[in-house]
Amino acid sequence: SGSGASLTAVNSKDGRHLLHYAAWAGHTELLRHLISTNQFDSELIEMPDSTGRTPLALAAFRCPASRRASV
Fold first, then answer.
1. Share of the chain residues as helix, strand and coil, in percent rounded to the nearest 5
2. Could you read off the pLDDT of 29-41 as tens digits, one per residue?
């Protein structure tokens, strides 16, 4: 049996990792959980995707203004 997928793996097509996808989908609780695993260092948390957007930028873009304070 093989090993599981890495939480921090970067998609070579778009330069995104799991934090990018969770942020884009608006999953703030998942974002908090992923960051709490301590598997995402500051380099990954601040890493831009192929369009130059960081997970935080995606979260701010996708999240309604009323929820931005919780991100």
1. 50, 0, 50
2. 999 999 999 999 9
Chain-centre distance for alpha carbon 47: 9
Rg (CA), the chain: 12
Task: Please provide residue 62's backbone torsions phi and psi, each rounded to the nearest 5 degrees.
Answer: -90, -25
Q: Are 8 and 39 in contact (CB under 8 A)?
A: yes
Q: How far is CA 39 from CA 7, 8, 46, 65, 71, in A?
A: 8, 7, 13, 28, 18
Token pair for 65 = 């203004």
Does residue 11 contact residue 24 with C-beta atoms inside 8 Å?
no
